[in-house]
Amino acid sequence: MFKRLRRVRLNPTLRELVQEHHLRPSDFIYPLFIRHGEGIKNEVASMPGVYQMSLDVALQECEELLALGLSSIILFGIPETKDSIGSEALCEHGIMAQSLRAIKERFPKMFVSVDLCFCEYTDHGHCGIIDPKTQSVDNDATLEILAEQALILAQAGADMIAPSGMMDGMITTLRSALDKAGFVNLPLMSYSTKFASAYYGPFRDVAQSAPSFGDRRTYQQNPANRREAILESLRDEEEGADILMVKPALAYLDIIRDVRERTLLPLAVYNVSGEYAMLKAAQKAGIIDYERVMMETLLSFKRAGADIIITYHAKEAAKLLSI
Ligand code: PBG
Ligand code: ZN
Question: Using CA atoms, how far apart are residues 122 and 100, in angstroms rounded to an integer?
Fold first, then answer.
């Protein structure tokens, strides 16, 4: 007599009873890209189904999301004008602050996170202030404006702040700035382990945030480094992050698992633009069963140890999950 593992796979109900991981609409955070204007809904060529929207269109979108059981979004802003320090991000009438106020007023139940960074707002496209001597981002000068930006977004009603710029000390700085201003209960979801990845390509078309010179390798992390990846997340935990993140997701499932095993904090993953674009291109070419590949991919993040999935697939996945 030998041991038969197939015994629990024969009956579909039993298969479900022994299923270890599940996807739910409440696992997802859906990214929205908001720009100035009215009636604007521009599809991004590399990311079918993803749009730059004006605020009026984004509000309609929120209604649709809530109807699908998606009540968590993360906002990215596309400013009117860019300059060397990203001034629009530091103005309470900027695109993000304005959008936050409008969305929270109309849909108080929508949980609205904001991406906190400067690359969309600077004319050079880097994630902070450039130090003219090194031509790289000046870490400590950037911390100061990050704190300013965070306070503006907190005052505008953000439910969670998600700093994505990979500056050292950003969590300490933001936590103390928010606490001093009375926002002691506003959570920080840190993009704690963020690689310098070619998978962000399509995002930079949507967010219009590609660097005009150089790359982000002096602040984002080398994809070859596992120990450093773990250290980055653990450091943000020590600094007081409430939720950690690994980004990108698909090529870094090992790192998701590594971080999961070393922290007790909730863990998010960012299923980034290039990952989405690859599946969409394969769907268009008719070479994969798109829906199944999508669900299998999303499930792999849960299995690797993620609690939260930031994904452009959220709407499609939520529709499938409701059937
Ligand atoms: C901004 C930011 C980026 C992404 C999220 N926040 C781009 C970057 O670092 O260049 C990427 C998201 C995606 O590719 O979907 N710092
Ligand atoms: Zn950035």
Answer: 21
Tell me if 17 is assigned to some domain. no
How far apart CA 217 and CA 166 sit, in angstroms, is 10
Backbone angles phi, psi at 48, to 5 degrees: -55, 135
Q: Does a structural domain hold residue 7?
A: no
**Token digits for 77?**
């802003």
Per the structure, the count of domains in the chain is 1
Q: How many CB atoms lie within 10 A of CB 90?
A: 16
Residue 271 CA: which ligand 1 atom is closest?
15
Q: Residue for token digits 């521009």?
A: 42
Q: What CATH number should be reported for the domain holding residue 185? A: 3.20.20.70
Does 119 contact ligand 1 (Cβ within 6 A)? yes
Three-class SS state of 182: coil
The predicted-structure confidence for 278-322, as pLDDT tens digits, reads as follows 999 999 999 999 999 999 999 999 999 999 999 999 999 999 999
> How distant is the alpha carbon of residue 205 from its chain centre?
16
DSSP state of 30: E
pTM here is 0.97
Tell me whether strands 111-116 and 160-163 are parallel, antiparallel or unpaired. parallel
- Which one from 247, 280, 302, 315 is the annotated catalytic residue? 247
Which residue range forms the structural domain that includes residue 263?
23-321
Residue 224 and residue 196 in contact, taking contact as beta carbons nearer than 8 Å = no
Q: Determine, yes or no, domain membership for 4.
A: no
Ligand 1 neighbour 117 (Cβ under 6 A): yes
282 neighbors 2 (Cβ within 8 angstroms): no
How many Cβ atoms from other residues are within 10 Å of residue 78's Cβ?
Answer: 24
Count the neighbouring beta carbons within 10 Å of the beta carbon of residue 40.
17
Q: How far apart (Å, rounded) are the C-alpha atoms in residues 79 and 186?
A: 25
Q: Is 115 near ligand 1, meaning CB less than 6 Å away?
A: yes
Q: Is-catalytic flag, 319?
A: no
pLDDT at 208: 86
Report yes or no on 12 lying in a domain.
no
